[in-house]
Design brief:
42% of the residues lie in helices and 21% in strands. The chain has 354 residues and is α+β, with helices and mostly antiparallel strands. Strand 9 and strand 10 form a beta hairpin. Helix 9 packs antiparallel against helix 10 and helix 11 runs antiparallel to helix 12. One of its GO terms (cellular component) is cytosol.
């Protein structure tokens, strides 16, 4: 199979890409939470951004896997000995899933490394999309649907992470758009359901209500997520997670009605609960950004599990314009911190056309 793959890659240029996301209500997409809380209909919300992660496949030495990615040292191993606990371990694990030796995987992301925008999950979705297309073409496996790609990407990531992981990052990468994800925890039907909140034609208007900032320091999501999981399993903070579900629903319902005042209020209440549970979820500059948002009648939230990375804000355009200037001033205090230029992504995963 490796020889078939290598021969194909020598003849074809293979590229797939997928968008990152900003979010609210995260962690509720982890089964540890949505099964016992299913009576409250847990949900998460995300907006896909056009800061895409591109994966390209090239032929390489037989039975070897090489991975290059900006922000990481290049690495190569024999397929059978590739380490899954490596910083690029998820990509090696996906190569192992497909038995894809003789390949060079090049990853190029337009979002900052480890920015809590779902980057590793996005790369996983793009890589599985690329392999799915190639192996279908060479007659080894059939191509996968978006839903299947997201589910497999999540399953492999959870295996190599060694801790429970959510699924919403993979879903945003696969589908794009502005969506709520309902976590039903059903057996015969899917455990999640997609609810489109904003139509593509309305994206330009929504973009006027948003800003996204990179705080200049990378995040480590496992640490904070693991704290939340451990607290929840031990019986602590259950009522806080019930409130997080409530405020996430309120946010989604307000956004559907273009009620940015109520959406911002729900956003700030949800953020405050998480800060109470884990103060380190937002650092000093992040706290300044959140306080500035509240003073300007906007909502603010960290992306992903926080602890570094990005924050985003939502509000009426005139308030967002003022907040944008204030955030630029706050961010100027740290090297590398900045507002990010973005558009809402409607495409989701894009695959090679062969």
């Amino acid at each position: 199979m490796s020889e078939k793959l290598k021969d194909f890659l020598e003849a074809e240029y293979i590229e797939a890409s997928a968008p990152c996301r900003i979010d609210m209500g995260g962690t509720l997409d982890i089964s540890t939470f949505y099964y016992p809380l299913r009576h409250l209909t847990p949900c998460t919300f995300n907006i896909a951004l056009n800061m895409r992660t591109k994966v390209c496949l090239f032929p390489y030495e037989p039975d070897m896997v090489k991975i290059t990615s900006k922000g990481f040292e290049s690495a190569e191993y024999p397929l059978s000995k590739a380490p899954f606990n490596h910083p690029l371990g998820l990509m090696f694990a996906i190569a192992a899933y497909y038995r894809a030796g003789g390949v060079h995987i090049d990853i190029e992301s337009s979002s900052p490394p480890r920015s809590a925008l779902g980057g590793s999950s996005v790369a996983g979705v793009a890589l599985i999309g690329a392999f799915s297309t190639v192996f279908d073409k060479i007659g080894v496996y059939r191509s996968l649907y978006r839903r299947e790609i997201a589910i497999i990407a999540h399953a492999i990531e959870e295996c190599v992470a060694g801790v429970p992981c959510g699924l919403q990052d993979q879903l945003a990468a696969a589908y794009g758009g502005v969506n709520a994800w309902q976590w039903h925890g059903r057996v015969k039907e899917g455990v999640f359901e997609k609810d489109e909140i904003i139509k593509k034609s309305l994206y330009p208007d929504l973009e006027k209500h948003l800003i996204v900032a990179y705080c200049g320091i990378p995040h480590e999501s496992k640490n904070i997520n693991q704290q939340w999981v451990n607290q929840f399993i031990s019986g602590k903070n259950r009522e806080k997670w019930e409130s997080i579900i409530k405020y996430t629903h309120e946010f989604i319902n307000a956004l559907k009605k273009n009620n940015y005042k109520d959406a911002a209020d729900a956003m700030n209440r949800e953020t405050a609960i998480r800060q109470e549970m884990t103060p380190e979820v937002i650092d000093d500059i992040g706290i300044d950004l959140v306080n500035s948002a509240i003073e300007n009648k906007c909502g603010a939230r960290f992306t992903g599990a926080g602890g570094g990375g990005c924050l985003w804000a939502l509000g009426d355009p005139e308030n967002i314009d003022t907040l944008s200037r204030e955030w630029e001033n706050i961010l100027s205090k740290r090297q590398g911190a900045c507002l990010l230029d973005f558009k809402i992504d409607s495409q989701g995963l894009t695959l090679p056309i062969l």
